[in-house]
Amino acid sequence: MKHADIKETAEALFNEQRNPFGAFTLGSETHHAVTIPDAVRRCRWIAVDMNASAFGLFFVSPSPERARLVPCFDSDYPGIAVATKFISGANGEEIVRHTRISTEPRWWTDDGVPATAELFGDFAWTERMAALVPGTSGIAFPVHADRGQCGLVVFLGSEMTLQQDALYEVHARCFSLFAAVARIRPGDAGRMRAISKRELECLKLTANGNTSEEIARLLKLSVHTANQYLTQSTQKLNAVNRNQAVAKALRLGLIE
User: Fold this and answer.
1) In contact, 143 and 152? CB cutoff 8 Å
2) pTM of the prediction?
3) 8 Å CB contact between 233 and 195
4) For the HTH luxR-type domain, which residue ranges apply (predicted)?
């Protein structure tokens, strides 16, 4: 199934209103007005339909020097799941290269459940890959949008249920969802105030579990200054506290 075919399937699927959020076509107002929380709900519904226990939506970074997956959200939203850190790390380099040139889904199984391998192994138009997250099973759907943007929608779970025909529908829904998120993501980034290198360093150390006192010692700052950097980055990310600021920075690919 080609990119254009998947888009057509997406339009037909959502015109028939088979999802609880109403019509969601590529040209509809709903498509343009979607928010990240709404996108999370839509992705969660797809996960429910295939009995997946976790999910995540990722953008492929535009940098040619180091292509990587940048998390947008996952099933722990507004937090970040441990699985997401694996996927957006070195484990995702191979699938990034694949995503840039193909829409063919990739699956893996590393949880010791034979039924999962049997389920995925019967699918046409898919191939097996190395596990994105150790000790799990999952399937990754490459997706593309306007302006050359591409990404990945990933579902994980040891008890997923999916038929061949449903595989195409799920992929079409992922395409439609990604197209909607891709439209709002640049706007969100554009409204964000620039975050300094020092502020990002403090956020990264916070993500690693360091306290303000530890951050101050590591960066040779006063505790007051370290807290000031964290407060400024929290405000710039429009977060309610530093933990949410860390989560947003990870989703936007500002820190790793």
Assistant:
1) yes
2) 0.64
3) yes
4) 188-253
3-state secondary structure of 17: coil
> What six digits make up the tokens of 26?
């590529």
Question: Which residue reads 């020092």 in tokens?
Answer: 198
Contact 23, 135 (CB under 8 A): no
CA 71 to chain centre: 4
User: Which residue segments constitute the domains of the chain, with CATH numbers given?
Assistant: 3-190 (3.30.450.40), 197-251 (1.10.10.10)
- For residue 135, CA distances in Å to 3, 157, 158 come to 31, 10, 10
* pLDDT for res 249: 80
Asked if 165 contacts 141 with a C-beta cutoff of 8 angstroms, the reply is no
Coil, strand, or helix at residue 73? strand
DSSP, collapsed to helix, strand or coil, labels residue 158 as coil
43 to 77, 160, 223, 229, 253: CA distances (angstroms): 11, 15, 41, 34, 20
86 close to 76: Cβ distance less than 8 angstroms: no
What is the tens place of the pLDDT at every residue in 166-181? Answer: 888 999 999 999 999 9
Contact indicator for 107, 129 with CB cutoff of 8 Å: yes
Instruction: Write the DSSP assignment of 91-146 as a string of letters.
Output: GGHHHHHHHHH----EEEE-SS-HHHHHHHHT-SS-EE---SSTT-EEEEEEEE-G
CA 73 to chain centre: 5
Given a cut of 50, the residues of the chain with pLDDT beneath it are 1-3, 6-7, 10-33, 187-191
104 and 95 Cβ atoms separated by less than 8 Å: no
